[in-house]
Amino acid sequence: MNKIRWGVLGVAKIATDRVIPAMQRGQWSEITAIASRDLDKARRAAARLGIPKAYGSYEELLSDTEIDAIYNPLPNHLHVPWTIRAAEHGKHVLCEKPVALSADEARQLVAVRDRTGARIQEAFMVRTHPQWLAVKALVSGGRIGEVRSMLGAFSYTNRDPANIRNRPEFGGGALMDIGCYLINTSRFIFGREPSRVTGAIERDPDMRTDRLTSILLDFGTGHAAGTCSTQMVFYQHLQIFGTTGRIELPIPFNAPADRPSRIIVDTGADLFGGGISHIDVDICNQYTIQGDLFSKAILDNTDVLSPLEDAVKNMACIDAIFKSVETGRWEVPQ
Predict the structure, then answer these.
(1) Does residue 97 carry a catalytic annotation?
(2) The CATH number of the domain where 29 resides is what?
(3) Which of 100, 137, 282, 298 has most Cβ atoms within 10 angstroms of its Cβ?
């Protein structure tokens, strides 16, 4: 087998506009089928994207013996049930973030993985992008000394009450949708879990989702702080401060696939940019890389890049932040 044959559950915009076209350019991945609960939608998506098979139900796709792996971009509340069904059909699963609605739900996937032998991974594509791998190497190599602080912001505006990101019963809201990136990358850079976390939330008065969430994670010798919003200016940025330098990522999460990404490194020589240098990262598509790495793990019978245990820990931080909003105290991720 030269390529892993993928099936896609649903016609979500992230799948049809970003992930599928990117994976179709992969060396080890091919998209062979797409399913929707509306067969016409599946057929239209398949025709537009050049996918050979279209199914009118998810179960039909999972029953296709010519499919090796599943990409699951369904709404958050459907991640766990359909990932479980896929694994039980003998499929490996790359599931969109957040992989579950809680850490306990994510632990269900660990049990299913161990029982079925399926590879299951949460799709945090940023972990595969060369800009983040370069930043991790810079930090590990002591380029900015010991990390003391990470500051991040991630926001956009979406006031559509019908959109799944604005439906609390579907796991909507800023923290679940984009705040999870701030948590994931801070854990990645610090290389350990926070000892405690806290947060503040401002909710939409009608939809009741968190439209503005600010978080603080205590890593002992350093802190990570961030703000995310679904009703604020379209923006993202991240900085890492060390004892002897600073690293800045102008576009940390939705890195462009049509131009180089830039890493800014500052020695702090002065406040006018005298210590600033740049590292340009070659043009690449993080969704292509993510899909191919998962496919290669299947082909080579090796571990996936990010084990489900990491997804459980990320969800535990999210759970604890939500809890801290209710208690008004620091909370320990469980």
Answers:
(1) yes
(2) 3.40.50.720
(3) 100
